[in-house]
Every structure is written in structure tokens, then in C-alpha cells.
Design goal:
This protein has 248 residues and is α/β, with parallel strands linked by helices. Helix content is 44%, strand content 15%. The chain has one domain: Aldolase class I (TIM Barrel). The structure holds 1,3-dihydroxyacetonephosphate. It comes from Kiloniella spongiae.
Length: 248
């Protein structure tokens, strides 16, 4: 692990002109500022080619938003991790709560997709997080434990995985978990990773926080123990805001 990882999940937003303007804006800043954070953008699949051609040979990394667990085959509309790697991606988001909800993805599915990503040479950004109902009933840590246990592939290399804690109730709602809540969950996740991989290996795994991260709350959230970066939705669509989250 080096600096913080600031990942932008564009979700189903953008166009060729939007992507070009946003990526050019980021590259301009990457060239000018001394940056300790690593930046990655995850555009919709149809914009990957545009973004990759702009980001080629730069410090801006690019990721997909999902991949199929299989290498190839009759899976209309899906994209394999191999193909993402082949076109130049370095990362892929797996298990985002919107995919768990919209497409019924289970921890087992997320595990298989993350394993496929690792086999292809991509770093999966494996998403976990409790719903509002689970938080209210005090089940947050149990849910997190199950998700971490079941979503991480058996033989995964701690060098090549990223976790993202995104409380579902904080996504796109403007509600952010308090630094104390975030600390509780991130410290708990670190403990689970320590138990599984041993402390030396586990500390290589970056644990991102996601859910209504914006320039106004980024400093406070990124200062929390065991918060190694951010997975940013809405604010990653504005170059000034996305940049200000990682460079302060
Ligand atoms: O889901 C998210 C990133 O993956 C977070 O989205 P928002 O930053 O828009 O809340």
C-alpha cells in the first residue's frame, strides 16, 4: 500500500464528450500537482475505450464497474475480466450494492467475479456494506463479517485486492456515516483481514470508504484509522470535486 486510493464510480452516467472533458481535466491536474494519492476512474463499459485511450501511459488508472465470472461464452451483455485486462484496465469493481440489488448478486457471485478478476490480472475493488434496516437492528458487524468471509476468493493475494465499505444507506443520499461509525467498521474489517491473512499481509489491503463522499467531508473521513481511500459516486462526476477529495 502506498498513498490513498481515490476511485471514481461513474455508475451509468456520462457520454463521449463528458468523459473526454472529465479525463482531460484530471490529466491536466495530475501533470501539474504533486500528488500522493492514486486515482482510478470506473466509467460505464461503453466509455472504457474513450477513457483508456486518453489515460494511456498516464498515472490515471481505469477500471470496469463489473465483470463476468467466466472467461468467455454465451453471456449476452456481459464483459469478462480478461477483456477488461486486454483493453488496458487495472481494476474492476465487484459486488457494488447496486449490482447486488439490481441483479441479485450474492456473496458467492461476488467471490467468483473477484476470483476471475484476480486470474485476469486485475485488482478487484470488492464492495461490502449494510443496509439501513441491518444497521437499525444492530446487525452491521455481522453482515460485514459474512460479506468479507464469503465475498473474498479463497486463495486471493492481499497484494492485489481492495475492499470498499459502502453503507447502502449512505450511497447517493447525502447521509454520511460519522467518522466514529466508519472507524468502528474499518477497524473491524482490518481485524477480519488480520485474522485471515496475518497482520503483515493484511496491511497491504486498502480499505476504501464510500457513500456520499465529497470535498467537504473527505478530509475528515480519510483521516479515520484504516480508511485507505474513497470510492466516490456523484462527486466523481465533477473534476474539481473528485480532485479535491484526493488532493488537499
Ligand atoms: O456508490 C458509491 C460509489 O460506488 C457512492 O456513491 P455516492 O458517492 O454518490 O454516494
Amino acid at each position: 500500500m502506498t498513498g490513498k486510493l481515490i476511485a471514481g464510480n461513474w455508475k451509468m452516467n456520462g457520454s463521449v464528450s463528458f468523459a473526454t472533458e472529465l479525463v482531460e481535466g484530471l490529466l491536466e491536474r495530475l501533470n501539474q500537482d504533486a500528488v500522493s494519492a492514486d486515482f482510478v476512474v470506473c466509467p460505464p463499459a461503453a466509455l472504457l475505450g474513450t477513457v483508456l485511450s486518453l489515460a494511456k501511459d498516464t498515472d490515471l488508472a481505469v477500471g470496469g464497474q463489473d465483470c463476468h465470472a467466466n472467461v468467455s461464452g454465451a453471456h449476452t451483455g456481459d464483459t469478462s475480466a480478461e477483456l477488461l485486462k486486454d483493453i488496458g484496465c487495472g481494476y474492476v469493481i465487484t459486488g457494488h450494492s447496486e449490482r447486488r440489488t439490481d441483479h441479485g448478486e450474492t456473496n458467492a457471485d461476488v467471490n467468483a467475479k473477484s476470483a476471475a478478476a484476480l486470474t485476469a490480472g486485475l485488482t478487484p475493488i470488492i464492495c461490502i456494506g449494510e443496509t439501513e434496516a441491518e444497521r437499525v437492528t444492530g446487525d452491521t458487524l455481522n453482515v460485514i463479517k459474512t460479506q468479507v468471509t464469503e465475498s473474498l476468493p479463497d486463495d486471493c493475494d492481499p497484494d492485489n485486492i481492495v475492499l470498499a465499505y459502502e453503507p447502502v444507506w449512505a450511497i447517493g443520499t447525502g447521509k454520511t456515516a460519522t467518522p466514529a461509525d466508519v472507524a468502528d467498521v474499518h477497524n473491524f474489517i482490518r481485524g477480519l483481514l488480520n485474522d485471515r491473512f496475518g497482520e503483515d499481509a493484511a496491511k497491504k489491503i486498502r480499505i476504501l470508504y464510500g457513500g456520499s463522499v465529497k470535498p467537504e467531508n473527505a478530509a475528515e473521513l480519510l483521516a479515520v484509522s484504516n480508511v485507505d481511500g474513497a470510492l466516490v459516486g456523484g462527486a466523481s462526476l465533477k473534476v474539481e470535486d473528485f480532485w479535491a477529495i484526493g488532493v488537499r
